[in-house]
Amino acid sequence: MESRKVTFRIRRFNPKKDEKPYYQDFELEVSRGMTILEALQQIKDTQEPTLSFRAYCRSAICGSCAVKVNGFPKLACKTQVFNELDKFRTNTLTIEPLDNMEVVRDLIVDWDKPIDKLKKMRTYLIPNPEVVPSTLDEESRVYPEELKKFDTFTDCILCTSCFSSCTASQLDENYGGPFQLSRVYRFAVDPRDALGKERSKVGYAFDMWNCVRCNKCADVCPKHISPVDGIMKLRGLSIEAGLRNNPGARHVMAFYKSLLDSGMLNEVLLPLRTKGIKGILENLPVGIKMILKGKAHSPIQKPISEHEKLVKLVKLAMELEV
């Protein structure tokens, strides 16, 4: 069986005795098919018994073994060493704890911060008595077309990989977080839930409009979920609920109005509709440059050809999304 000598550069830190984190190298003969978790366990068994990491199911279900491999969050039990070596064209892999959480020891992080937010946001089913039977003699019926709206988000294993990669979670203490907000959406569209679309107010309260749609959460998710999609849909529910008093919601409505009015984005009126006079003043220097270079359209725009068909298409898309 093919094997290679691999250097694992592991970030170590014991807050009880270390002033700051440091890196320690371990050489290991790795056979094809060995996972990162198996390599870590072999290092612990044969070279460094104090090495600490978290693992449980070894089946990519519990999410507890998530670490960073060469800067990218991965499930250690699922990620094969050879695949990472080939991807990065190296014989050295750097293993680090996830970001945005306090390090307990070595590769173990404290999950209290993201999980506490999950609890505060009430991301659990609150049964609707009109839908959920009061006894176990009957079942709650969820039809395929209803399940399709939230089925993907039920695959989340709470590994916190998306949370660790989220810049908004790093900069805004009040921001709900990617897997947390997408889980709010999951229950908002569950027909068995008593709160339903009212849950969009939770997303609003936890700064969901601060998501910049960088898609990092989707890129790193080991279950191929796209939390950002749930956040975008939760934003839509909040607009339907009338929660529009913020720049993000007004920006969306300005885009939508432009499409309905003319079929084109009105770049001149967009700052005004989003931030009012303040928006005009903030964007004035850029606006002047655009006008001088002929890049800005007139605020009065004629509808494009086949504008009526575009409006029908937009409205049909909105109906399908709902």
UniProtKB/TrEMBL annotation:
Domain 4Fe-4S ferredoxin-type: start-end pairs: 202-231
CDD domains: fer2
SUPFAM superfamilies: 2Fe-2S ferredoxin-like, alpha-helical ferredoxin
Origin superkingdom: Bacteria
Biological pathway: Carbohydrate metabolism; tricarboxylic acid cycle; fumarate from succinate (bacterial route): step 1/1
Pfam families cross-referenced by the UniProt entry: Fer2_3, Fer4_8
Chain ranges of the 2Fe-2S ferredoxin-type domain: 4-101
EC number: 1.3.5.1
BP-aspect Gene Ontology terms: respiratory electron transport chain; tricarboxylic acid cycle
Cofactor note: Binds 1 [2Fe-2S] cluster.
Keyword annotations of the record: 2Fe-2S, 3Fe-4S, 4Fe-4S, Iron, Iron-sulfur, Metal-binding, Oxidoreductase, Tricarboxylic acid cycle
Cofactor dependency: [2Fe-2S] cluster; [4Fe-4S] cluster; [3Fe-4S] cluster
Any GO molecular function: succinate dehydrogenase (quinone) activity
Catalysed reactions listed for this entry: a menaquinone + succinate = a menaquinol + fumarate
Record family assignment: Belongs to the succinate dehydrogenase/fumarate reductase iron-sulfur protein family.
PANTHER family membership: SUCCINATE DEHYDROGENASE [UBIQUINONE] IRON-SULFUR SUBUNIT, MITOCHONDRIAL (PTHR11921:SF29), SUCCINATE DEHYDROGENASE IRON-SULFUR PROTEIN (PTHR11921)
NCBIfam families: dhsB
Protein name (database record): Fumarate reductase iron-sulfur subunit
Organism per entry: Balnearium lithotrophicum
Taxonomic classification: Bacteria, Pseudomonadati, Aquificota, Aquificia, Desulfurobacteriales
